[in-house]
Design a protein that fits this description.
Layout: E1 30-32, E2 38-43, E3 48-53, E4 56-68, E5 71-73, E6 79-91, E7 99-110, E8 115-122, E9 125-132, E10 137-140, E11 142-148, E12 154-159, E13 176-179, E14 188-197, E15 200-207, E16 215-222, E17 227-234, E18 238-243, E19 250-255, E20 260-263, E21 266-267, E22 270-276, H1 287-290, E23 310-314, H2 333-345, E24 350-353, H3 374-383, E25 387-393, H4 394-399, H5 401-411, E26 415-419, H6 426-441, E27 445-448, H7 457-460, E28 464-467, H8 486-490, H9 497-500, E29 512-513, E30 527-528, H10 531-540, E31 545-548, H11 552-556, H12 559-566, E32 574-581, E33 585-592, E34 595-602, E35 607-610, E36 622-629, E37 636-641, E38 648-651, E39 656-663
Parallel strand pairs: 23-24, 23-31, 24-25, 25-26, 26-27, 27-28, 29-30
Antiparallel strand pairs: 1-2, 2-3, 3-4, 4-5, 4-11, 6-7, 7-8, 8-9, 9-21, 9-22, 10-20, 11-17, 12-13, 12-14, 14-15, 14-16, 15-22, 16-17, 18-19, 32-33, 33-34, 34-39, 35-38, 36-37, 36-39
Helix pairs in contact: 2-3
Length: 666
């Protein structure tokens, strides 16, 4: 097996000369976007391509190829077979906005041996994918993606924390910003964003990841001038599996010398190079969604109306931490009845039963522990309008998939939170799709944990209502401020991980601390930053299934904050980033009907935010309910104001704010 540390591909040294664009953005060896802001140019003699934005070259002499059995399929000698313009628009089932529309110019090139390469040029980026049109078995030994950049760019990415195998990872780590030419050679998972100067960024991400391994990136050098570059690496196809005795979790024991195998014609994942002039464009990017496969109608023959977003009470983060009750809290009937009652009083749709409701080390998903009468608990919740979601291990579900789905759907369970996949080789990706399909057919929602960042699956299967693949609030249970910086992460992750799709960050801590006061406490955890910071997270991240992570008894001591969280809309019509800079701060506004909800966050630096309300309907009057930072991390100020008065908001160190902007009804 080739070492990822030693893989470096040399691109050709000569720059591709840009040719003039013909009408429709289609030159013979170029494709330009509809507004001609983005252009991809091809050198078909050596198989390289270059990308420019408004005439500025961002990517030089990049390479794209598939390695099949000793042969390399690339664009050398390619012939353009089709090209044109498309505009697509659709209403979404469950997404951060109600509708999505994209326009692009495209071209398909015929390569050798039943292969094609499709390119699309959007005004805000370039995307391509390989297509195999033959009937044979296709074994992919490697995929070449080598993207060189001009100058001395910086890259922001999250490296794998898996040791000694970087491809065995939970896809959770802090982001690192470093000069690409001096970056550490440890695989980083997507997205990764390259700063090209003057606010320009090229962000690499993938979509339509199906029956193929997910992409990692490492630093590389390219060409005679040794341009700094990123290069793709992939987990190899598993040859054998073994199991940990703990949690009955499977893992890859050995691998083959190839990365993918498939039969007959197929498309491969989209490689997206998103181009932005401002960081604020990233959290509202729709290319991952737009390039994913549409709804799988066969799995949703009865429609999708049963897929309900919502808020959930959750016991794991607070360690089943009820106080002042007349029973022993834990994994038992009375504890979960208390959580259900709390959810019902606050209008929460769900309660999650996390690890411990079944004998996890034996993988006995069909045998709840004797302390629980699960059918009775389902009925208790049904009477109060609260549904249950069950936690489980990925391979345990997959090994008895139809039995588990049929049984628990019949019992009235709403869905599963499925955990610890911890890899993204081809078989792992196939498992995620297989479970999503079975759950859809049985009308069950899914919250995927311990999984790679989303890559379009939720457009195809919108019953997958959330993903982890994020360094969530749970890490405050065991990491101090020297080990991680959550406020910094919170103003970085919406720009990168957030552009991929949903993020199950699990906010809502009611115990909060400035940096100097923060302490690790596994059973009674606190958050880094202020309470207003925690409230704002419900707006700054996309999360159709959102947890209230803290204990019901802690929320009961904070009725104003709890009521405000619980009153937030479950879905929104529109999302706007009012302002922000990656790694510093972010202000996000979401519209529900005529009302807006605005969340703002800062890192450990206190700052004043100027509010620009120009996006509001000028013919309406608005009032604002404002939660802002107070003089202590655990306190907040609640006030009423108007957009005319709310022109500047002060954020404390690690602070935030949450505003409800209410439109006057006509």
């Amino acid at each position: 097996m080739k070492s990822y540390l030693s893989r470096v591909f040399l691109a050709a040294g000569l720059m591709v000369m840009l040719t003039a664009c013909h009408s429709g953005g289609m030159g013979r060896n170029t494709i330009s976007s509809p507004q001609k802001t983005a252009t991809v140019s091809f050198n078909l003699s050596d198989g390289t391509y270059s990308i420019s934005h408004n005439g500025k070259i961002l990517v030089r002499d990049a390479r794209a190829a598939m390695v099949t059995g000793g042969d390399t399929i690339d664009m050398k000698g390619a012939v353009r077979s089709t090209s044109g313009f498309r505009s697509e628009h659709e209403s979404t089932v469950l997404y951060r906005q109600k509708e999505v529309g994209v326009s692009y110019n495209y071209a398909v090139f015929d390569l050798r041996d039943d292969w094609q390469l499709e390119w699309r040029a959007f005004d805000d980026g370039i995307a391509y994918r390989f297509i195999y049109t033959g009937t044979a078995e296709t074994v992919i030994y490697d995929e070449v993606l080598l993207v060189p950049f001009d100058g001395n760019p910086e890259i922001t990415w999250a490296h794998s924390a898996g040791e000694p195998d970087p491809f065995r990872t939970s896809f959770e780590n802090s982001y690192t910003t470093e000069p690409l030419a001096k970056a550490v050679t440890v695989p980083a998972f997507l997205p990764a964003s390259v700063g090209c100067g003057n606010g320009l960024r090229v962000t690499l991400v993938e979509s339509d990841l199906k029956a193929y391994p997910g992409m990692f990136l490492i630093p590389a050098q390219s060409g005679k001038d040794h341009h700094p570059a990123v290069e793709a690496v992939f987990a190899h196809y598993p040859a054998s599996f073994a199991k940990h005795p703990w949690r009955d979790m499977s893992y890859v024991e050995s691998t083959c010398d190839y990365i993918s195998v498939s039969n007959g014609e197929r498309t491969y994942p989209w490689r997206i190079l998103k181009i932005t002039e401002s960081d604020a464009e990233l959290p509202v990017d729709n290319l991952v969604y737009a390039l994913a496969q549409p709804l799988c109608k066969e799995a949703f023959t009865g429609g999708t109306d049963w897929i309900k977003p919502g808020f959930s009470a959750w016991e794991w983060w607070n360690d089943w931490g009820l106080e002042g009750v007349d029973f022993k809290p834990g994994i038992n009937q009375r504890t979960y009845e208390y959580y259900i009652d709390f959810a019902a009083r606050n209008g929460l749709e769900y309660v999650v039963l996390d690890e411990g409701w079944y004998p996890v080390n034996e993988g006995l998903l069909m045998q709840p522990v004797q302390e629980l009468n699960l059918p009775a608990l389902v009925q208790y919740g049904r009477q109060r309008g609260v549904k249950l979601i069950l936690w489980a291990i990925f391979n345990s579900v997959d090994e008895q998939l139809e039995t588990v789905m049929r049984h628990y759907a019949g019992m009235g369970i709403a869905g599963f939170k499925i955990d610890f996949l911890d890899r993204n080789d081809q078989t792992a990706v196939e498992m995620a799709w297989r479970i999503a399909d079975a759950a859809a057919r049985h009308r069950l929602i899914l919250d995927y944990h311990g999984i790679f960042p989303p890559a379009g699956l939720s457009r195809t299967y919108p019953n997958v209502v959330n993903y982890e693949g994020i360094l969530g609030l749970e890490n405050c249970k065991w990491n101090d401020t020297d080990a991680m910086d959550h406020p910094l992460y919170d103003v970085t992750v919406p720009y990168l991980r957030g552009m991929c799709g949903y993020a199950d960050y699990t906010p809502g801590a009611m115990k909060n601390a400035y940096r100097k006061d923060f302490k690790v406490d596994y059973s009674k955890p606190m958050s880094m930053g202020t309470k207003a910071h925690q409230l704002a997270l419900y707006i700054t991240l996309d999360s159709p299934l959102s947890m209230l992570a803290d204990s019901p008894t802690n929320y009961e001591q904070e009725p104003v904050a709890t009521s405000f969280i619980a009153s937030l809309p479950r879905r929104y019509d529109e999302k706007v980033v009012m302002s922000g800079t990656m790694g510093k701060y972010i202000v996000v506004a979401r519209r529900s009907g005529q009302d807006w909800y605005v969340g703002g966050l800062t890192n450990w630096e206190s700052r004043d935010i100027e509010m620009d309300w120009s996006f509001l309907d000028s013919e309406r009057r608005y009032t604002i309910q404002a939660f802002t930072d107070a003089d202590r991390a655990e306190k907040f100020r609640l006030s009423e104001t108007t957009p005319a008065e709310c022109r500047n908001i002060h954020l404390a160190s690690g602070g935030g704010f949450l505003l409800k902007v209410i439109a006057e009804r006509k």
